[in-house]
Amino acid sequence: MFFIFRIYFILILIRYLFITLSENFITYYLEIMYKKCEGIIMTSMIEILKNEHKNVKNLLNEAVENKDTSKYPQIQKELRIHLEGEETLLYPKTRDQATDLTLEAYEEHDLVKKELNDLDNLNIENEYWMPKMKVVKDLVEHHVKEEEDEYFPKTEELLGSDQLDHLGQKYADWKDDVM
Ligand SMILES: [Fe+2]
Ligand SMILES: [Fe+2]
Hints:
The chain is mostly helical. The protein has helices spanning 2-41, 45-65, 72-94, 99-120, 129-178.
């Protein structure tokens, strides 16, 4: 009887050890896989910015073509976040090595922000409202073209993909906080 009890106890012990160990192994490997996936799905800040360019250009096009003022709150919010994100996280990293391109970008941002501030303070019925919106559209299109044709390729060359992935994560976290 004592022998049977001992065998039974050993079997329970083995079962308990097996479950605990296999759980630990599964958790351990799941964590490794999660970390690998996290590394793979990190997106370069430049890719995020390019998507935002596309989105805001579409919104501006629709607003101007249809003379639709209702999209302005969304346009100004998305544009301001985009401009601030670039000025805070990206431009300081390139200022010393791509000085002319970076300073020109800051200047163009100032022009867009000036027009946005004017629009914020202008009655939507004012005859200048839509012409000003058209100026914002033209400024943004010009600025986006310069960024994508000249500034981004130079930035990729200077910062490399690891740093741009890291900045992409930082930008995404910052956007979560401010939106
Ligand atoms: Fe910009
Ligand atoms: Fe941009």
